[in-house]
Amino acid sequence: MSEKLRILIGSPICQKPDVLRMFFFSLERLVSKTTAIDYYFIDDNTDPASSRMLQNFARRHAGHVEIVSAQKSNLEYVCDETTHFWTDDLVWKVAGFKDQIMNHARQSGYDGLFLVDSDLLLQPQTLEVLLASEKDIISEIFWTSWTPISLPAPQVWLIDEYTQYESSRTEHLTPEEQYLRKYSFFGKLRVPGVHEVGGLGACTLIRKKALEAGVSFERIKNLSFWGEDRHFCIRAQALGFSLFVDTHHPAFHLYREADFSEATTWMRQIHRATPIRNGTPAVSAAKSTPRPKITLSMVIHNEADKHLAYVLSKHREYIDEAVIIDDGSTDNSLEICHEVLKGIPLHLVKNTTSQFAHNEVDLRKQQWQETIKFEPEWIVNMDADEVFEDGFPPNARALLASEARDVCCFRLYDMWSDSHYREDPYWHAHGIYRPFILRYRPNHRYTWKEQPLHCGRFPSNIFELPSFLSYFRVKHLGWASDSIRQEKYARYKRLDPSAAYGWKEQYESILDPEPHLVAWRE
After folding, report:
1. pLDDT bracket for residue 74 (50, 70, 90)
2. Strands 294-300 and 378-381
3. Are the CB atoms for 157 and 197 separated by under 8 Å?
4. Phi then psi for 272, rounded to 5 degrees?
5. Percentage of the chain with pLDDT > 70?
6. Is 474 helix (H, G, I), strand (E, B) or coil?
7. Residue 455 pLDDT > 70, yes or no?
8. What are phi and psi of 55, to 5 degrees?
9. Does pTM surpass 0.70?
10. What is the overall mean pLDDT for the chain?
11. Which of 105, 288, 421, 448: disulfide with 8, CB 3.0–4.6 Å?
12. Rounded to an integer, what distance in angstroms lies between the CA atom of residue 488 and that of residue 479?
């Protein structure tokens, strides 16, 4: 039987007791079949309760924990519900703490150091998976909304200080191109795997080879980049160590107090079946996960000979009810709705004349009002030519039950046929995450984008609510035949001749005889 690897888990700690309790809870549930774990903490706490928790942790793991008291200073670390405030002096103070921990790991001959911030909650398999990668420096990913209304972003980057899109030295990218490349990078990181990056931090395994080579958080004097992680990563690359991120078991970043409810739910689900190695659980196991109620909301207009039957057949696999506005159809679209959704509660509203042709925002408001009459929990707002990929329906409930955030965003692919989607400068919707699912909050004040075309399917201010990204994709079938493209081209030219609400070049590209197409793969 091979000898276990000796791994040191280290962290400089200046933390609130409630956060620290959850941090320790997740540390004590790390699977350690191949490792012998010790701990090294630097106590920089200002709250005596946090220091007492450190000592209690040490007693539970007697002989395996070393606690070093930090020298007192006048530097204050301030956090509020918007962000965390880091001064330059604070950054380099923490850098010194991290180097102190690395020196201890190096001098004590550990096989690796797992440096982890004390506001991160870990999945049990995290350490074992990082070790299994056999990378000298690798972080586990986590995602953070750096402001309350921003989309979550990962703690890893590709170049410079925090650039999260690929760019060569000779390229001059427009803001739109930068945005698309960034969200392409984000999409890649949503897929479980190991990915090479240019920068990382906060949840990092550093193997013995890198420790002995001299990696360090010490400031590089001729570099102006802010943040000790940048200096660590540049020095590591200069020493010949590539940097990687694992995305199999994302950590949870307990960044602000508003995240506590979501963090507690996350902990219960992740750690429900994982036994504690020592000590008493700090969070009780959940008895069951509530079943989320899912309401489909849709507008239809003369969809009988298009994709309606197929789309509804896919949605019925996971929804609890449906609210559909028939916007003046003259075909048998209504009959298809009744037939395909038979057995599912269905609320149908029929407009005698189409509103979509005159003022889309009024129609979307009507759709919204009719939907919220039924006190929905989760609203799936899909057009009659949109459908999730096949992996979504069996996983929809687990996805929504596990998230405490309210706006779920997906990438939408414009299908130009049954088997290919379009990708070129005018057609790259799949580079951006868009909201398709919303948890209805009755007390939130919703507002709309008041314009007759391209007003949005949801109220315009939903990103005031916390959001999250899903790696499942949406197939947009509304361009998948030549006849439909001809019809839409004529409609846009009629309703928006000056492209006041859209993009003229994109309108004109609809009829391109040789578009660039990419094969769709499930």
Report:
1. low
2. parallel
3. yes
4. -55, -45
5. 92
6. strand
7. yes
8. -65, -40
9. no
10. 87
11. 105
12. 8
The two tokens of residue 287 are 């008895």
DSSP secondary structure code for residue 13 in this structure: E
pLDDT surpassing 80 at residue 282 = no
Give the strand pairing for 5-13 and 35-43: parallel
Q: C-alpha angle with apex 126: 125 to 131, nearest 5 degrees?
A: 100
- Tens of pLDDT along 345-387? 999 999 988 877 677 889 999 999 999 999 999 999 999 999 9
- How far apart are the C-alpha atoms of 203 and 146, rounded to whole Å? 17
Q: Which two tokens stand for residue 163?
A: 């650039």
> What does residue 446 show for φ and ψ, rounded to 5 degrees?
-90, 140
Q: How far apart are CA 239 and CA 232, in angstroms?
A: 11
Q: CA–CA distance from 101 to each of 35, 206, 251, 310 (Å)?
A: 19, 12, 22, 58
Which residue has tokens 């440096």? 115
Residue 502 C-alpha from the chain's centroid: 28
Region for 483 from its dihedrals, namely left if φ exceeds 0, alpha if ψ lies in -120 to 50, beta otherwise: alpha
| pLDDT range class, residue 215, cuts 50, 70, 90 | very high
478's tokens: 């509304």
Let me know: does 225 contact 160? Beta carbons within 8 Å.
yes
Domains of the chain: 5-271 (3.90.550.10), 294-519 (3.90.550)
Going from the C-alpha of 386 to that of each of 20, 307, 473, the distances in angstroms are: 44, 9, 10
On the CB side of 163, how many CA atoms lie within 13 Å of its CA? 14
Average pLDDT over residues 296-318: 95
Q: Which of 367, 388, 384 is nearest to 301 (CA)?
A: 384
Distances (CA, A) of 110 to 5, 97, 140, 217: 8, 18, 20, 19
The reported pLDDT for the residue numbered 278 is 43
User: 275 pLDDT exceeds 60?
Assistant: no
